[in-house]
Amino acid sequence: MVPFGGWDMPVQYAGVKAEHDAVRNAAGVFDVSHMGEFRVQGPGALAFLQHVTTNDVSKLKPGRAQYNWLPGVSGGLVDDIYIYMVAPDEYLTVVNASNIAKDWAHLQRHAEGFDVTLTDESDRWGLLAVQGPQTESLLQPHTDTDLSSKKKNAFFPARLFGFDVMLARTGYTGEDGFEVFTDASEAETIWDKLLAIGLTPAGLGARDTLRLEAGFPLYGHEFSDTIHPLSSTYSWVVKEKTHVGHEHIRTAPTQTLIGLKLDRVPVREGYPVKVGGEVVGHVTSGTSSPTFGHPIAMALVNAQHAGADVFDVEVRGKDHPATRVALPFYKR
Amino acid sequence: MTNTPTELKYAASHEWLAADGTVGITDFAQDQLGDVVYVELPEVGRVVTAGETVAVVESVKTASDIYAPASGTIVAVNDALSGTPELVNSGPYEGGWLFKLDVTGEGDLMDAAAYEAANN
Fold first, then answer.
1. Contact B37 A205 (CB under 8 A)
2. Mind listing the pLDDT tens digit for each residue in A200-230?
3. Is ipTM > 0.90 here?
4. pLDDT per residue as tens digits for the range A80-96
5. In Å, how far is A278's CA from the nearest CA of chain B?
6. Residue A184 and residue A268: Cα distance in Å, rounded?
7. Domains along chain A?
């Protein structure tokens, strides 16, 4: 168990590779109850969310979810979040565990002048992410809801194993899956039932290798208070509107997030990335890819070098060649 | 339950030392690390001091430094690990050995019982 955002979290159960493979080929379940949930409601809820995010929240309909950013007042991101529309004037947002206090303070500060009520429900919700190609077929016998009718980013109440839950067809692994919002007091029972129907328990280690292969940025690595979020390939998250930090988001980023592959040596966060012996950036996340069997990494490099085909990554004082590859590394 | 052979000596940092100078990491350590994907070994002929970083074992999760459990000269390394690093997981006391020392002086080492007690 390791400390993570104030929680003790299992890094692995049976082993990162076995858990990773289970999610890619069958289905696994992650306990992500540490993530934060804020309810946003009131006649001013939409106007408020439009003010504090970059994506167009007005495109959401009840029962749908959207990936979004909370831009900072002076650049960077406060967090990257998911917004689930419950009903007109009512939304549930899911935020990164390590950012709960910071996000809460930020949202409170910017709520002034909006007819909106914010509620921190982080302690009320358990959150279990069921991910992998067999998710739908494994869950279907245990709910009356026709899961095949629910598209990506659907968000709906359901009964699962006889418990009232909210289900969302969302995830962070690059696979199909459902995230199960449970009453916190029922999360452990539902977890046990999910294992009993054949889901593989998976920890933070596999969550990281899966999201990295899928090219998903992770706050604290590819996003931060200072990293320009448009360094990543996620420009679609910024829509035509005015919002907090508007002028900073619309400056050109000086760095570009790239994908790298290496032959053998795993590279880790912080390792220098070079072109012709000159340091042009650093690794933000790196691992040995269980799917491909070789090391992969994401790196932030100076924009003018982002087009290079070959880089070197310095590992313990020695340079190792790395080839630039398109993100994501893996697509289902 | 992990395995701790009684004929070996153990460092608190999870290396084992055999009477012939062979060094590896313990079953407990490989279990904690998980799937080993890369091992960086020292050069033969290098003179090392007990406690010095001499190798790196990388799992999917993380890179872990390996410390010399004794002072001496590196006389052999396990070349098989460059192609099959997973030997560290499958046989930490056999095929997954790391390197061999011509020992001139041991570091602060424990017997199997003390090592097991320290990791319970």
1. no
2. 999 999 999 999 999 999 999 999 999 999 9
3. no
4. 999 999 999 999 999 99
5. 25
6. 35
7. 2-212 (3.30.1360.120), 254-325 (2.40.30.110)
